[in-house]
Amino acid sequence: MADSQPPSRLSRRGFLIAITGSALAAACRPADMIAPTVYAPGSAQATHTPAATLPALPEVADAPFSILTYDRPILTDVANLYITQYDYNNTPSVDAETWALSVDGLVDSPLTFSLADLRAMPAITETRTLECISNPTGGNLIGNLTWRGVLFSEIVARVQPKAAATHVKFEAADGYSTSVTTEWMLHPETLLAYEMNDEPLTVEHGFPLRVHIPGLYGQKMPRWLTRVEFIDYDYRGYWESRGWSNVADIRTKSIIHTPSENAEIASGTAIVLQGVAVAGKREITAVEVQIDDGEWMPATLVPSGSSPLAWTQWYVTWALPAPGVYRIGVRATDESGFVQTTEARGLFGGAFPNGTDAIHRRSLRAV
Known about the structure:
- By secondary structure, this protein is mainly beta.
- It has two domains: 36-67 and 251-366, Immunoglobulin-like (Sandwich); 78-242, Sulfite Oxidase, Chain A, domain 2, CATH 3.90.420.
- It contains four helices and 21 strands.
- 41% of the residues are buried.
């Protein structure tokens, strides 16, 4: 559960220094400030050393790891969704009564929409995953929620973009801006969202409107949206101009959620290894789990939504055979045939500048 107090604020510069020591980090952080799990090859390798010779680790109860919970769809609580912000000192508090969305530029009929106008249009509700481009291997800068809003195609039908438009530029109430190609923006499932988990967007998560574009990281999906401008050039926003991907398309990845890192479990106990996998617009077709350097074994898949835009949950039951340290790995395959093979390196697990598809690994201790 998230703390009842609001997350503490760091300046953008202070956050970047604290996380990386440099300015090469996207301004993303989990809402509850839990440090992501990061694995650097060569550290904490599985040894099967008898328990008596292992360093002491925090005690973790066995029982929760024996319970299957990922056999049904799981949503992220809004309070636990990570917060992304390029300037933590500027969180807009927008008046819904006076707010408006301008859609203009290279269009035949530039228009302005109030929140009431958008709510009066046909709405869709769909479970989708939102992830930060700087989410490290195994990190928690990711969430799976139910979003409600209007498809951007409803807006397109009204404004009629010109053939010369090659990109779409976004402007937000906090001063953030970025752009995507018209090909991305005109995806039939691009959503202008005004609700999350059946409630209006919170202030921190972009009230009154944010955009969700299938297949892209959150960097390309601004909150507090105020303007959508069709343009004929490649506009580079805050993070793109600092070296992060100008496409920011989601890479295939899988994450171990339970057991926790360095969990201490009685040998012989049957536990359930559980987690999620994502591949942007692509369907997850397989997830496999590896114990140390053993053979990859298939996991059971559980879709959490009606489309690949929601994460796919997975689980495997396994019994720790003897005392020692075991290294658990997970990899996903998507519908294009791509299989994760890269090992994580560095603090962000290779996330800079394009996001990461590195294999997540986690250690368990059997006693």
